[in-house]
TrEMBL record, chain A:
Residues 517-566 are annotated as: Disordered. GO terms for biological process: anaerobic respiration; nitrate metabolic process. Its cofactor is [4Fe-4S] cluster; [3Fe-4S] cluster. Gene3D superfamilies: 3.30.70.20, nitrate reductase domain like. Keywords: 4Fe-4S, Electron transport, Iron, Iron-sulfur, Metal-binding, Repeat, Transport. This is Nitrate reductase. GO terms for molecular function: 4 iron, 4 sulfur cluster binding; electron transfer activity; metal ion binding; nitrate reductase activity. The keyword Zinc-finger does not apply. The gene is narY. Residues 7-36, 173-204, 206-235 form the 4Fe-4S ferredoxin-type domain. Its main location: other. It is found in: Cell envelope.
From TrEMBL, chain B:
This is Nitrate reductase-like protein NarX. The lineage of its organism: Bacteria, Bacillati, Actinomycetota, Actinomycetes, Kitasatosporales. Does not seem to have nitrate reductase activity. Heme b binds at H69, H79, H201, H219. One of its GO terms (cellular component) is nitrate reductase complex. Pfam families: Nitrate_red_gam (PF02665).
Amino acid sequence: MRVMAQMAMVMNLDKCIGCHTCSVTCKQAWTNRTGVEYVWFNNVETRPGQGYPRRYEDQERWRGGWELNKKGRLALKAGGRFKKLITIFANPVLPSLDDYYEPWTYDYETLTNAPLQDHTPVARPKSLISGKDMKISWSANWDDDLGGSAEHGEKDVLLNEVSEKIKLEFEQTFMFYLPRICEHCLNPSCAASCPSGAIYKREEDGIVLVDQDRCRGWRMCVTGCPYKKVYFNHRTGKAEKCTFCFPRIEVGLPTVCSETCVGRLRYIGLVLYDADKVLEAASTPDDTGLYEAQRQVFLDPNDPEVVAAAERADIPRDWIEAAQRSPIHALINTYKVALPLHPEYRTMPMVWYIPPLSPVVDAVRDTGQDAEDHRNLFAAVDALRIPVDYLAQLFTAGDPAPVDAVLRRLAAMRAYMRDINLGREPDASIPEAVGMGEEQMYDMYRLLALAKYDERYVIPTAHAEQAHQLEELATECSLDYEGGPGMGGSGPFGEASGGAAPIAVENYLALRDRQLSDTPATPADKGTRVNLLNWDGKGSPPGLFPPGDGDRPGSPDSGGEVEPKP
Amino acid sequence: MTASAQYLPLAVESGTGGILLWVALPYVSLAVFVLGHMWRYRYDKFGWTTRSSQLYERRLLRIGSPLFHFGILFVLLGHIGGLLIPASWTDAVGISEHTYHVLAVVVGTIAGVCTVGGLAILIYRRRTVGPVFSATTRNDKAMYLSLAVTIGLGLAATVAANIVGGGYNYRETISPWFRSVFYLRPDADLMTGIPVLFQLHAVSALLLFAAWPFTRLVHMLTAPLGYLTRPYIVYRSRDTQLGSRAPHRGWERIR
């Protein structure tokens, strides 16, 4: 047994309202640069739909992920080492920009520069690739909310797997959103495809990263990733991918997409797994066996043997404790409500999903029946093959049984909790029907419905903060007194002098304190240094706004001065 | 780089010009090549890439790029065979001068045509495909020019020697000179009497090598041959250094 820790995520799809806040904040944090205009480390897809890039799930075309070769051994679907080197001069299956979309901006200057004329000037769309006028015809979420599905609907790869009859009823039946980030797989095919060895998996937390100094732009990772979550920066000529916001994770903060998620549907935590069993699990002969095989790779962090092995593997004590409290472990292995996305790609993905029950509930409600009654819901899960089959294509390589079981468990929770909320006697037979105890069902409800920030995100720090404090002690600037030049980020020789500011662990910790505190602003016992970047809109912390004229602090006419005084 | 023509009169006679061209220039070029790469690797790892434009245009690249690259690899092999391996060695294994010559001309012509054809497609693509052209820097243009000139001169020299002149045995002049540079006993006299096109080709190649570390051609030196032997999944420990600057002495992390 070789214990390794993996930072993982679970998303509860029932709660996703498709607002794209995660995508936008991720973009602002990571990919608002030239060369990555078309890159969405996080995107939200409407299902059924084509996804981004278009039809990325069609692995017969894109050749992503792993497959079993004739000998039953795991091999890269796009070809092994030798084939990769032979085709290195022109990757035969690289998606072109058309498969993503041509990024554009608008010619806003015309709006202010245009001479006086009869017609209102317009800002024309300009391609960010060629710089010329362009007609916008596609984007990252063009088919959002089933938009244009009459035209594009049948291009959904998974729909082709589901039978003809279902296709026609589909649109009326259900729709849900699927937020996607990099899966930070246990068996990453992007890393295996990289000729330079620039993509690596971090030993400590399993985050898969691209070493920008070692990437040579051979583009094989883009093909290798079946989720198409490695992107090519066309300005720098390097591959870029979701980083799981590792600078935040290292100090115990959730990723930007999770932090800003309006529906609070994301959970982050550790999973302990046995690295020796990964290859065997990924080589499971039957596609439909992969979900169960991957679950078997995960270790029970409460098992004393596992704890001992983890300690031998130099996993810090607080990491093991975090793994024991991990919401991910609970959702995947204790309650068994989370499922992996496309396990048939055999990469052992580590961003899992709780499939949406809402389509089933909606369908029952539309019939006029009681949509909270577990008997109705159970019957509907069985009868409504359409959502179940589609979800099975997404999460279990087509096997409806696990999806069925999850939906029944969610339905049972719904019905059981209604009785409690209405003050009726709880019905123990409901959890029993899905193989759960009453207490366990309530705990699951707590985790899915009530869990607060520190329960949804159980992230042990990388012990970076300590090292950093040591560093700061040694390097403290003598001008860093209150109101001194050091406080405003300016050195003795003006703005930006005195070297770069160190990574802002202090800011991160302050933000974390504020998220975990119950008072809306400036808790007395917590760090309160705030700037515009980490201000969350709660109150007006001291130092953030320039001092007003006494009676009206922060009033608009208190002067536009924002520069720190030297 | 393209000013090689002005050296021509000096090249014909052995003397100061000959020494400069066939003794000084090779060493300068070699030194810049080696030290330049070391400097680039230390200070510009982020810029060390193929700068692929496949995302912009696929159709022409699919033909042109493999054609050029495989062509130039065979040309490279040919140069190694012709310049590094002495005629006495090939004689020793029983390859006659005639066999060698026929082999070199046939394989060389095929590889040369592939290279030039691929390069033509790539240059055409670079000029005519809008996004590719707008991603082309001045550095790229200079590189393309010197590369094209070098390849063109090389092909011209071979064609001229074999079709017009009935063959030229460079293994008696250019090859010994090339090796003599590495023996540290450079013999400029060997190069003075050879056909002008070969001289021009050699000079342009030396200039290209000197420019090499400062262009996108650096990607050749990191051809990913290690991929054949390394394990598929690379595991790496988190950087020992946390934060944006190195810890000060005495404050390093204890693992």
